[in-house]
Design a protein that fits this description.
There is one protein chain. This protein has 118 residues and is an alpha+beta fold. 42% of the residues lie in helices and 31% in strands. It contains 3 helices and 4 strands; from the N terminus they run αβαββαβ. The protein starts with a helix and ends with a strand.
């Protein structure tokens, strides 16, 4: 009888530990997994009449209606050529949607994707 109780208690303890690991694992994976993000380096040629391309308000206005995305100035080549880093949530196609919006902006002559930022 003592062996039976001992085996029963061990079995209950193993089941309790296993159950806690099963329920803890998904929440741990959710926290460890990072959402998709995109980060792209762009060469942007502006119209010559843009008054101050270095203005943060101007840079954010190029994003139009894409919340969560950010343009960071990497360097200014000449007066109207910007090298920018576009970063934001979602997979790569979401960055491409923002780039297409920027290309339609009347103040932008061209947007060239120079590659993914590291």
């Amino acid at each position: 009888m003592k062996t039976y109780r001992w085996l029963t208690l061990n079995a209950v303890a193993l089941i309790a530990v296993s159950a806690s690991l099963i329920f803890a694992a998904p929440s741990g994976n959710v926290q460890a997994a990072s959402p998709d993000t995109c980060s792209v380096r762009l060469g942007v040629v502006l119209m010559p009449d843009v008054p101050n391309p270095l203005d943060k308000g101007f840079l954010s206005s190029l994003l139009s209606n894409h919340p969560g995305f950010q343009l960071t100035l990497q360097r200014l080549d000449g007066g109207a050529i910007l090298v920018l880093e576009l970063s934001g949530p979602g997979p790569e196609y979401s960055c491409m949607n923002v780039i297409e919006t920027m290309r339609r902006d009347a103040r932008v002559l061209s947007v060239d994707v120079q590659g993914a930022s590291s």
